[in-house]
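User: quick one, fold this
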Amino acid sequence: MYVHTTRRRTWPVVLFHAMGAVGAPLLIVGMAYGGASYAVNGGPGSSVYVGNALVIIAFLGAFGTGFLSDPDHPFQPLVAILTSVLLAAAVLGVAAAVDDETLRSRGESTRCTVLDVDRQVHESTYTDSNGITHTTTTIDYKHKLDCAAGRPDSMTLKKKRADKGERLQVTYDPRGRLDPLPTDRLERGSTWSSMAYVLPPVVIGVRLLVLLAAAWAAARWRRLVRRRSSRH
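Assistant:
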């Protein structure tokens, strides 16, 4: 059962939870964007690894931001978990959006003939704390290509895009930082990249609603206590 606390809220406490509602998601998204941009646009050497490391840190940090939410509301645990998962998905969306936009602006399009399509099945197995073994199966389709530009020579996708002998318009990164993609896929965008624009405002909005609801409930509780005190 939810029991309301009567402690007075101080400005540092309010600012701390406001940071969890607004500042933390913006910081996480900014870190993901910076890392993804550095990975695809940075100089030679370790820039790819440093950029990807920042994206991974942002992904993991997204789950920690839920602990900055206001605890003085009964929905806080649910909101913290839900918005943290959404923020982690937004990090992946930001990385996908950066990759897509970079490939649009820097990529070169070429006409390719599909030489063969190799269906690849990948299985990963892990055992949980209860001793139950879980197996996850993913399928990729490696399209072997003969392109007018001389490259790329292959393109791996989650879905089969063409059969042997068919032609595709493919966009590739001349710097080799990004995997090639069908040109029409870049034109219409992807679900992951759309998440980069949709999920962060949702996370901030939901967390602010809970923060305001907790502040309103605390103010209402204090008014009720003052009324009772004035009667005695």
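User: anything notable?
Assistant: The chain has a mean pLDDT of 85.
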